[in-house]
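Supplementary Text 2. Reproducibility record for the structural model of the 101-residue chain.

All settings were left at their defaults, and a single model was retained for analysis rather than an ensemble. We include the record here because the model underlies the residue-level annotations in Supplementary Table 4.
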Amino acid sequence: MTESTRRIIDALLAVPKGRVSCYRDIARRAGLPNGARQVARALHSLSRKYGLPWHRIIRADGFIALKSGAGREEQTALLRSEGIEVSGAGQVTVKRKAPTV
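Retained model, structure tokens:
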């Protein structure tokens, strides 16, 4: 396993239950500013082996990347089971913390 793959795995495992992140941000946390596709490949090939929370990773625009019939329904169900709101179109409602005054 390469060092960059190890960093991607560590960043993925750091996404807590009930939260989501996007491919781009995981790549950045792993020190790969243009590595969103590497993150997608790691999720595809390593999720089962390492128990990665693949369902918590979405596109930067807030939508689930998987198409209907290709895993979107399963991802939606898993996210909802963690209390995350997902629209019928696959858009995740990201709740932001209120700014402190």
